[in-house]
Write a structure and sequence with these properties.
By secondary structure, the protein is an alpha+beta fold. The chain has one domain. The chain contains four helices and five strands, in the order βαββααββα. The chain has a five-stranded mixed beta sheet with strand order 1-2-3-5-4. A hairpin with a 6-residue loop joins β4 and β5.
C-alpha cells in the first residue's frame, strides 16, 4: 500500500522484477498525488522485454468525472492531460530510469475518459526483462 491506494506487485516469483515494478508504481502514484492533489486509486507496473508499462485505475478527479459526461468535457480532459503529461514527462522518465537502471528512450501515455484508466509506456535502451531473468538464474 502506498499513499492510501492499492499497489499490486508481481508476488514472490517476481523477485527483483516484482520489487522494481512495485517501486515504480509507488513512486509514480506518490509523484502524481503531490503534483495534482490526487493520485490514481490503483496502479500496477509490468516490465515486458524493453518496455515498462504502468496501468493506473481511478485517475480522473471528481470534476473530470463530471466533465466526462459530455463530449466537450472529454475533449478538455484529454487536452489538459496531454499538457500535464508533457510538463511532467521528464520527472516520470527519471523515476523509471532510477528504478530500472536503464535509459528511457521514449514514453507514451493515454487516458480513458470513460473508465478513468491511464496507461503509461516507457521504452528502455535494453531488454531489462531478459537481464533480470539472467540475474535470477
Amino acid at each position: 500500500m502506498c499513499c492510501g491506494v492499492g499497489v499490486e506487485t508481481a508476488g514472490p516469483q517476481g523477485g527483483r522484477k516484482g520489487q522494481i515494478e512495485s517501486a515504480i508504481t509507488g513512486a509514480m502514484i506518490h509523484y502524481q498525488a503531490s503534483l495534482t492533489g490526487h493520485g490514481p486509486t490503483e496502479g500496477r507496473t509490468y516490465i515486458l522485454e524493453d518496455m515498462v508499462i504502468v496501468r493506473f485505475k481511478g485517475s480522473l478527479s471528481r470534476m473530470e468525472q463530471h466533465l466526462a459526461q459530455q463530449f466537450e468535457g472529454r475533449k478538455l480532459i484529454k487536452e489538459m492531460r496531454v499538457v500535464l503529461r508533457e510538463g511532467s514527462s521528464e520527472e516520470l522518465q527519471d523515476i523509471v530510469a532510477r528504478e530500472t537502471g536503464c535509459r528511457v528512450v521514449s514514453s507514451h501515455s493515454d487516458i480513458s475518459t470513460r473508465t478513468g484508466e491511464r496507461i503509461e509506456i516507457y521504452v528502455l535502451d535494453r531488454n531489462l526483462e531478459r537481464e533480470l531473468r539472467r540475474r535470477s538464474d
